[in-house]
Design brief:
With about 140 residues, the protein is α+β, with helices and mostly antiparallel strands. It contains 3 helices and 8 strands. The chain has a single domain, classed as OB fold (Dihydrolipoamide Acetyltransferase, E2P) (Beta Barrel), CATH 2.40.50. The strands form 2 sheets. A 5-stranded mixed barrel has the order 1-2-3-6-5. Strands 4-8 form a two-stranded antiparallel ribbon. Helix 1 crosses helix 3. The longest helix is centred in the middle third of the chain and has 18 residues. It is globular, with a radius of gyration of 15 Å.
């Protein structure tokens, strides 16, 4: 058993961007707190990019996360116990939809909303990728 991994129940507070969420983490015994968490294994378009297409796509992915995760039970497994340079924890997130569960980073990569990321050099976003995200219908 890896002593560096911790598992928690959580609820979405807000999507900061496409790969970072603020969640209310249930610590048990009626204790909970809000924490900013980076979603493990992915990189999504940045909402604060100077490139307008990336900025627009980043907002779209954050809006999608808000719609997808609101009112859902989340299960977090932390990968790193210390915050990163932006003071976030790194966690894998499982989403319980009531009718089944799915792993969030794989879901976002499957939609083309995120690239695979292991902490090394980030893959640049192409114009066509960003336009696909921007044109995605959130009502589906």
């Amino acid at each position: 058993m890896n002593k560096d991994l911790y598992n928690y129940k959580a609820k979405l507070v807000r999507a900061v961007d496409g790969d970072t969420v603020e969640v209310l983490i249930d610590l048990g015994f009626k204790f909970s707190f809000v924490e900013r968490v980076r979603i493990a294994k992915i990189d999504a378009p940045e909402k604060k990019s100077s490139y307008i297409l990336e900025k627009t796509a980043g907002k779209k992915v954050a809006d999608y996360l808000t719609k997808l995760l609101s009112e859902k039970q989340l299960y977090l497994t932390t990968i790193k116990t210390k915050g990163d340079k932006y003071d976030r924890y790194l966690a894998e997130i499982i989403v319980d939809c009531g009718g089944g569960i799915f792993e969030l980073s794989s879901h976002l990569m499957g939609l083309g909303f995120a690239h695979s990321y292991d902490g090394g050099k980030k893959q640049p976003w192409g114009k066509e990728e960003l336009e696909k995200i921007i044109n995605y219908n959130l009502e589906t």
